[in-house]
């Protein structure tokens, strides 16, 4: 039991006010505020959120993928190219072609892979395949003097001397210091000058 500080009479221990004089005995504990109930997302809101997520995903993909498609040659493609070069130097042309092909599959814009594979085909006397590779290299980089020279050598092997001369001249137009193309052109001109018939 406790006593009222105002009238001094005994009051119950749990009383807030004195039952005798009505004086306040203790301050009542404040009632905690009731938190507002969380609103559940409506079906429409969920659909809107999902749609926005899909749109953002499409935007991100459409932005990243073109960058990936135009990415520079991968290290793996370069490794295959280097392996092909080593095999070519060793005279293993078929194996070199296989390595160059792997490099091209990884990076179809790798001009040097087409050019080097064309040289390997040329050594294997597969002239149509060589010509196709040199043409592809030229399509990717029309200013590649050595690809024009390779095309000239292949056309010469195919007996298309006029076209071969045009290819050599194009190589020298791009790079007047291309001594290989100059040597090939001069040699072909000397050969044609020795022929008693008109070349095609």
A few lines on this structure:
The chain is an all-alpha fold. It has eight helices and two strands, in the order ββαααααααα.
Explain this structure to me?
This protein has a two-stranded antiparallel sheet with strand order 1-2. Helix 4 (111-123) runs antiparallel to helix 5 (127-140) and helix 5 (127-140) runs antiparallel to helix 6. With 200 residues, the chain is mostly helical. The protein is built from 8 helices and 2 strands. The longest helix has 27 residues, at 43-69. The chain starts with a strand and ends in a 7-residue tail after the last helix. Among the domains are: 75-141, Tetratricopeptide repeat domain (Serine Threonine Protein Phosphatase 5, Tetratricopeptide repeat); 145-200, Tetratricopeptide repeat domain (Serine Threonine Protein Phosphatase 5, Tetratricopeptide repeat), CATH 1.25.40.10.
